[in-house]
Write a structure and sequence with these properties.
With 140 residues, this protein is α/β, with parallel strands linked by helices. It is 32% helix and 20% strand. It contains 5 helices and 5 strands; from the N terminus they run βααβαβαββα. The chain has helices at residues 20-23, 28-38, 52-62, 81-88, 128-138, and strands at residues 2-8, 42-48, 68-72, 94-98, 120-123. The chain has a 5-stranded parallel β-sheet, sandwiched between helices. Strand 3, helix 4 (81-88) and strand 4 form a beta-alpha-beta unit. Helix 3 packs parallel to helix 4. The longest helix is centred in the first third of the chain and has 11 residues, at 28-38. It starts with a strand and ends with a helix.
């Protein structure tokens, strides 16, 4: 059975509450339950943190034993060399996802520091970006 980690960064614990026009009104926990129901042949782990070091520790913990990581690093996408280095240092393929299309938003969101060390990037499909990230891992 394939094992996939879904890792969310800062402020994604507020999905369904914050900026609904950008991020929608569904909580990630509800969406995560629907993913598990859709992929009964996979083992999922999920972690969210607003703290950069905890995200790095989680990448280290799962990045050598899991078949893939789907990461939405939130704002750390654009600022964290440390998360980039953690992704580059593990064996598991990592798919970067974003709920919104970051290229249509503020200029500072146009560059991803983690993208170059990820297997691929998916953005702009709402919460379905996570499912597409899972499908990408399954296709590797």
């Amino acid at each position: 059975m394939k094992k996939i980690l879904i890792l969310n960064g800062p402020n994604l614990n507020l999905l369904g509450v914050r900026e609904k026009g950008i991020y929608g009104d569904q909580s990630f926990e509800d969406y995560y339950e629907s993913l598990k129901e859709s992929y009964t042949d996979l083992t999922f782990s999920y972690y969210q943190s607003n703290i950069e070091g905890e995200l790095i520790d989680t990448i280290h913990k799962y990045g050598f034993t899991y078949d893939g990581i789907v990461i939405n690093a939130g704002a750390y996408t654009h600022t964290s060399v440390a998360i980039r280095d953690a992704i580059a240092g593990v064996n598991a393929p990592v798919i970067e996802v974003h709920i919104s299309n970051t290229l249509t938003r503020e200029h500072f969101r146009h560059e991803s520091l983690i993208g170059p060390v990820c297997k691929g990037s998916i953005m702009g499909f709402g919460l379905d970006s996570y499912r597409l990230g899972i499908e990408a891992i399954l296709g590797l």
